[in-house]
Amino acid sequence: MRKSITTILWGKFKDEKSFLETLEYIKQLGYDSVGLEVRMLPSRLIKEPRRVSDDLRKVGLENGGSYSVMRDQDIEWAKAAGSKLLWVVVRKKDCNEALKMLAEFTDKASSEGITVALHNHLRTCFETEDQVLSALESIPKLRICLDTAHAEAAGIDSVKFIKEHASKIGLVHLKDLRVKAPKSKIRFTTDFVNVGNGIINFKPVIAALRDVKYNGDLMVEVEALSGQSPNDIAKKSMDYLNKLLL
C-alpha cells in the first residue's frame, strides 16, 4: 500500500512554484504519491497537464489520481497528467440520471485506460452501502473510492465492506469523523478531521486491507483544518500512518 495525500489540504495554489514546493515537502515527509484536486491547481497546470506529470517526476512522487466532475475534458486532462484513476462525486439529485451519467463517464474513461472510482459521499445518490453496491453491480468497470469518514457517517462498516468487496476497491480515502451524529448534521469542514483525531478505529481497517492484499493508495484527505497549517496536518498524518503500518 502506498502512502498518499490529496492536495485539497493546501487549497488553491497561486502558481507552479508553490505547487512544486508543496510536492517537495510531501516527498520529504515520506509520502509515495499525491492525489490531485485539479480545480485548485495553478491555471497554467490546468491548461498544461503534461507539466503536472513532469513536476511529479522531478520530485519522485507517483500520481495517485485526480478528482473529476465527470466532464469529457477531465479524461483528456488525466491522460496528459498521468492520472490513471479519477475519483468522482456524483452530485446530481435525480438518482436515475446520476447512475446514467456515471455509467457513460465510466465507459468513456475505461476506453482510454483510466479507472473511475465512485466516492461514497454523504448527501448524494451514493451515500449508503446499498446505493454504492447497486452502482457497482450495474456498472462492471466502476470501482469505489472508499472514504472512511463518509462511510462511518453513513453507517457503512468499512472493515466488512473491504472484506466482502475487495475487488471493487480502486482507492481508499483516509479521514476521521469527529463525532457520531445524524447524517444531516454532519458538516464537512468541521466534522471530517485528520486521521487519529476522531472516533474511527483505523487498525482493523488497515488489517482488512492487508488481508485482502490491497496494494493501492491510502490517501489522506482532510477537509477540516481546525486552525492548523496544511504542512502540520500532512506531517501528523504521516506520523499516524507510520504507526498504523508498523
TrEMBL record:
Gene3D superfamilies: Divalent-metal-dependent TIM barrel enzymes. InterPro entries: IolE/XylAMocC-like, Xyl_isomerase-like_sf, Xyl_isomerase-like_TIM-brl. Residues 75-243 form the Xylose isomerase-like TIM barrel domain. It comes from the Archaea. SUPFAM superfamilies: Xylose isomerase-like (SSF51658). PANTHER family: HYDROXYPYRUVATE ISOMERASE (PTHR12110), INOSOSE DEHYDRATASE (PTHR12110:SF41). This is Xylose isomerase-like TIM barrel domain-containing protein. It comes from Thermocladium modestius.
